[in-house]
Amino acid sequence: MNGMKIYGLLAGVCLLAQSCYFSEEDIFDQSSAQRAMASVEECQTALKSASNGWLMAYYPGSEGPVYGGYNLIAKFDGEKVQLSGEMATPNYVAGAVAESLYKVSSFQGTELSFDGYNEVIHHFCEPNSFYDPGYQGDYEFIFRTVSADRIELTGKKYGNTVVMTRLPDGFDGKTYLEAVSALATDAAYARFDVQVNGKILTTFVENGHAFTLSQMDNTGEINETIIPFIYTDKGIQLADTLRYGGVEMTSFSWDSKAITYTCMDNGVDAKLILNVPEDFKKYIGNYMLQTTNNAAIACSLEAKRLGSTYSLKLNRKGVDLELVFTYNANTGCIDLMSQVVAITGSDTYYFYPGYGSNFFPYPGVGFIGELQKDTPMTIGFTYNNNNPSVNTILLLYERSDGWYLLDSFANPVLIKQG
Q1: What fold, for 187-274?
Q2: For the whole model, what pTM was predicted?
């Protein structure tokens, strides 16, 4: 049995606490309604006072920041907010500005609500499907602390933590978010060895914006520690100080050529160095893709990102496609998640899991690989959202009048050749 604990920001704060403070004379001289109105005005004024906006460190998740943190920038004018973020979606390009309504009100304390739909933040708040709650993000928050340069918020539904820092005049938010997004893509490797004072101590498994450290206790139980972080334009910042190997670590710079993170804390000799599992290499090679609705297809898996991803290229009906498989360090096998598989002059092609004419166009859904046989190596796939009916790789493209099917592979199995 696996135990799990969260290492980092914990949202165990009472949601009924008032956040904006006043002198004792004010408290006794004003009614509760007057104090509530004054608090709303103070918090609204603080939001608007940042002429270049606020950098928001947003940590979604209902059980603490298990998904890590994400950078958003918000600029408030008293009625509308301009939001931009590091995460691209099918409908949003990283760094772009999306405008919507917001409000500051008094209910359970002084609240900030992003009540007008905005892709930048509501992407974190929407479930991926009936079986998958998604990031479990908040869009309604309680003000916790307010100062000229820093505001802290706690989510009403899931207790998400948000720390807002005033951006200086002249700061180029779009360039910063684009740089963060690019670094996150460049550094998306699966495993890193933790080196302290020249000695390898353990291995971190990266999952999105968090590392997982697995350790066996004296009873033989494997316990997982989640170490959330947020990307910067130079590397990563841990959500909380990591104490390990006799040192304390909080921030790391990224070296793309060395594929290494280097700790930036004074006096600390620590690095996170790419770890390429031996199992990763065994999946490289030639395969037959067998399905129940198509003839067998000869194909090959090639390393795309060392230790992390593979490329499988196909041509279907004249369209060159690339399916990117991910090495799963937890299972020691390969997975296929929803993704863009081709872009032509007029169309974008997607892989989404489905069955029949039903499909699930969401990020993070797909098929988990399972090694069914060693000789010849045979890999089967199971949908990752507990619906056994979903058994088909659907290759789709969208036009103004709806979705169209390019091809499909039902019950896919990869069999290694040679």
Answers
A1: Lipocalin (2.40.128)
A2: 0.77
